[in-house]
Amino acid sequence: MTKTSEAVLTRTTRHGPFPAVARPHRRMSGESWWLAAVAGAFTLAQLTLVRPGMGLGWDETVYVSQVSAHAPAAFFSAPRARGISLLAAPITSWSSSTPLLRVYLAVLSGLGLYWALRSWWGLFPARVLAGGGALFASLWITLFYAPQVMPNYWVAVGALASVGFFLRAQADPTRNGPVWSVAASTALMAWMRPTDAVWATLPLLTLLVCVRRRRHLRLLLALIGGLAAGAAEWIAEAYVGFGGLGARLAAGSRIQGDLGWHIAVGDQLRSLGGRALCRPCTGAMPNPAVTAWWFVLPLLAALALVVAVRARRTATTLLPLACAVTAAVPYLFLIGYAAPRFLLPAYALLAIPVADALAHLMTAPSRRWRPVVVGLTAVGLAGHLAVQCAVLEATVSRNTAARQDWVRDVADLHRLGVRPPCLLTGYDDVPIAFYAGCASADTGGHNANTTAQALIRTARRMPVAVLTTGTAPPPSYARTWSRHRLKTGDAYVAPAAVRKGQGS
């Protein structure tokens, strides 16, 4: 451990069955620039590597359409929450500019990272916090999703902040600020994804319930109150639109393939190569260089716990590790598919303990072996960063091209007379409809919200098109509609729209 670490962590406190917790020191403001530098570099890396011009993705169009005048709101399925839509609303409510939205979210995500790292102030040295922030921020998954209208990054930020503030509140019960911050960070998680928030805070709730001490009642109320406040709208919507909370949870389970015992570890490994959604998750595993860090991560986490136990500050490492495990469990063992963004909260919670383990590795060996260990660690980190950048570049290029294909499809549809007000159904109808300014509707699948008869009636009063992959036949009601080739497949356009296009 470095001298800075020893200075910060010399004072510990123990409350009943709680493990030893470092009592935060307050005279560290001179080193806060480390955290600001990491957050600033994170924002700049998003703007440089992801690029604001990348169009909106499939899920993004669903979230943005809820608060945008550009197109009618897309079907909002049971698992989704409106937190990320409302976070984007200050831009999307008056502007359809995707670059402006990307810049806004990149800046906001940098501020969010700084806030989450700052919540750990005094529990670890500033350089360890900055190192943990850099490890998390340099993952291609973090860089790719932070500037997107997707909730997972914000669940990760809220999870990291909630554990940090929790430890600070437990270490110094006389202060009210950390308790209120626990409530705020927990509410942020639940606002974005209520079920993820419950999984991520499960160890904290369990610990407080088991302790049953009056001085910990404030923390328990803060956690429960934060979860309730963040999920209030989602719960209310469950009763208004889904028939109750249980019905919404059941519908969400069906959409996600019936939650139960599913080992998705291999699926998550496959997704590390840059696959946004691995469903079904088939094909070869990525190059071992792409997945190597995934196997090193638990080893470093175990080392971090050993270091913490020896330094008599067990809880500062054990709690984030426990929360990382519970946050990852549903996406590793209870769901039958994978997306790399699902594990962002777990990666965020692991980042600081792993950074502490790396700091220990580089300072603990004898003077003779220290240069070797430092050199090997530096080479490993450099290789890891290079791999992350390569995967990010390929992922951004692939997604940018796919979204440009949607733009070309929209131009073709407009030439065919499918212009607002209009309706699209079928393959990739949700994002293409948003780009075109049309409504979207489906008669089957997870987004089913209409019938074939309703689509036929709609086609008599506005332009309607059925989209297919180009190899699948159209539904029976559209077989007589005119077929047109698009970049991503075929469009079967209702006769009314064709006549309108020919007359324009």
The total of helices stands at 20
- What share of the residues does DSSP label as strand, in percent? under 5%
- From the alpha carbons, calculate the radius of gyration and give it in angstroms: 25 Å
Helix-strand topology string:
HEEHHHHHHHHHHHHHHHHEHEHEEEH
Helix/strand/pairing class, anyone? mainly alpha
Shape: globular
Tell me the helix content.
Answer: 55-70%
Number of domains: 2
The span between the termini is 74 Å
Average of pLDDT = 91
What's the story with the biggest beta sheet? 5 strands, mixed
Give me the count of strands: 7
Q: Which runs of at least 5 residues are low in confidence (pLDDT < 50)?
A: 1-11
What does this structure look like?
This protein is mainly α. It folds into two domains: 3-257, no CATH class; 401-503, no CATH class. 62% of the residues lie in helices and 5% in strands. It has 20 helices and seven strands. The chain has helices spanning 3-8, 33-50, 58-65, 83-92, 98-118, 126-137, 140-145, 152-171, 177-192, 194-211, 217-241, 245-255, 265-271, 288-310, 314-333, 344-363, 370-415, 429-436, 452-459, 495-503; strands spanning 12-13, 21-22, 423-426, 439-440, 464-468, 482-485, 490-493. It has a five-stranded mixed sheet, sandwiched between helices. The protein has a two-stranded antiparallel sheet with strand order 1-2. A hairpin with a 4-residue loop joins strand 6 (482-485) and strand 7 (490-493). It is globular, with a radius of gyration of 25 Å. It starts with a helix and ends with a helix.
